[in-house]
Every structure is written in structure tokens, then in C-alpha cells.
Design goal:
Layout lengths: L1 E5 L13 H10 L4 E5 L3 H13 L3 E5 L13 H8 L4 E10 L7 H18 L3 E6 L2 H10 L7 E3 L6 H9 L2 E5 L9 H9 L5 E3 L21 H12 L3 H16 L1
Parallel strand pairs: 1-2, 2-3, 3-4, 4-5, 5-6, 6-7, 7-8
């Protein structure tokens, strides 16, 4: 299995004696063979690249999360050199998040457009975060021709209609541990109904641990619980889901 989205640099390693290598080994022992460690701002970009350099089974992305530093104006050159690193396989996470009213939508939109430009220039896919911003997210993706970069809608919590519109633009849909939550009906519908060749799985660790670990720190080694929940919804084996999502990850991130 491949964890298509996690934040290894944000994990509390107390249970591993402060040693990320021990957490990585526990992840491998659980059957998760590769991880994409996702950047959320410029300050932490070098951290995720350093982790990817240290562990052959870890890849990195660099980008600017819409909820970070609400007034920061991003320029293409802020990302371009970092993103050229050979272990950086994607741009993001980027996107729009209107959940917090103090976060300036205009600056979020400008940063989103900038990161789409960088992804297209470098021919690396986008990792898109969207929350309570469905219409504007799709509008900007279309205006900026995001399909030229391709990418993934990560930790997807919107409706099936949005998922299918993103798939029409050559995007993949990544499902997190939310799918195992009892009342996550909308996420479960998306996980069950989107084409299997457009599905990815993720932990978004350290956030959103799946049942039975809900409320605790999430870790990449819990990815099999996400896979099991989705396989059950789709009526297929975990092995079939594993094979499909692994092939999808490698196809998207090359």
C-alpha cells in the first residue's frame, strides 16, 4: 500500500523514542511500502525534502496550504527551486479553505493560481485541499487549465458531483480515515462510487485517525484500516483495492 498524503514532519515521535526511522519501520511492517510526505508552507518545505532524502520509500511535495499565513502573498520563485528537487513529485498542498472567515479568500485564490502555474511549468501534479469552497475551487481549476498538471483532490469530503467534475479534469480522488466514521455518509458514497482507476488512499497523518484509533494521533501504519473500510464499501478485496490504488499512485506521480 501507498500512503498518498501524510505529514511525517508533524508527528509526535515520543512512542518511537524520538526516532522517525522507527516509525517508518513500523509503517513498513504494517504493509505500507511508500509514503508521500506533504509540505504545507515554505518554512517546512526543506523538512519534508530532508525526510524524503533520508528514506528511499518516502517522497515529498512542496506547496502552501490555504489555511497557513492568511496574508502571505506567494510568488512562483518561492517554490520553483524547491520543487525541482528529484524527490519532490508534486506541488501542494494548495487549494481553498473557507471554513475560517479570517482567512482572506482573495489571497488564497491568488496563491492557488500561482501553485497551479508552478505545477504546469514543472509538469508535476497538484495536491488540492478544498473545504467549503467547492464552486471557487472548480472555477479556478478550469480557468487555470489545471488538467494540464493533473493531480489529486486530497482528503476528499465534498459530494460525488464535485468528485466527478474533478475526475473529468484528469484528477484523482483521495480518501482518508474519515471514510470509517459512522456518520461520514457523503465520503462513503464517493469512496463507493467513483471509478476505481481514479481512487487513492491516505492517512493525512497526524490528523483524522481511522476507527478504531479515532481521536488519537494518526500514523501511516494505520492506512490498512482506511483500505479495509473502502474495500467493504465497494464489495472488493483489500488486495484488489491495494493493487488498484498503488497503480493509480504510480501513474499519477510517475
Amino acid at each position: 500500500m501507498i500512503d498518498s498524503h501524510c505529514h511525517l514532519n508533524m508527528l509526535d515521535l515520543a512512542a518511537y523514542e524520538g526516532d522517525l526511522a522507527k516509525l517508518i519501520q513500523a509503517t513498513l511492517d504494517a504493509g505500507v511500502e511508500e509514503m508521500l510526505c506533504v509540505g504545507v508552507d515554505l518554512e517546512h518545505a526543506r523538512e519534508v525534502i530532508a525526510i524524503a532524502e533520508a528514506f528511499p520509500m518516502v517522497y515529498a511535495s512542496v506547496g502552501f496550504h490555504p489555511g497557513d499565513l492568511p496574508d502571505f502573498v506567494l510568488k512562483p520563485e518561492d517554490l520553483l527551486e524547491l520543487a525541482k528537487h528529484p524527490k519532490v513529485v508534486a506541488i501542494g498542498e494548495t487549494g481553498l479553505d473557507y471554513h475560517y472567515p479570517e482567512h482572506n479568500p482573495q489571497i488564497q485564490q491568488a496563491r492557488f493560481r500561482t501553485q497551479i502555474e508552478v505545477a504546469k511549468a514543472l509538469k508535476k501534479p497538484l495536491i488540492i485541499h478544498t473545504r467549503e469552497a467547492q464552486a471557487d475551487t472548480l472555477k479556478i481549476m478550469r480557468e487555470m487549465k489545471a488538467e494540464e498538471a493533473r493531480g489529486v483532490m486530497h482528503c476528499f469530503t465534498e459530494n460525488l458531483e464535485m468528485a466527478l467534475q474533478a475526475i473529468e479534469m484528469d484528477f484523482y480522488i483521495s480518501i482518508s480515515g474519515i471514510v470509517s466514521f459512522k456518520n461520514a455518509i457523503q465520503v462513503q458514497e464517493v469512496a463507493a462510487k467513483i471509478p476505481l482507476d481514479r481512487l487513492l488512499i491516505e492517512t493525512d497523518a497526524p490528523y483524522l485517525a481511522p476507527v478504531p484509533f479515532r481521536g488519537k494521533q494518526n500514523e501511516p501504519r494505520y492506512l490498512p484500516y482506511v483500505a479495509e473500510a473502502i474495500a467493504l464499501l465497494r464489495g472488493i478485496s483489500v488486495e484488489a483495492l491495494d493493487q488498484a490504488t498503488t497503480e493509480n499512485f504510480n501513474r499519477l506521480f510517475k
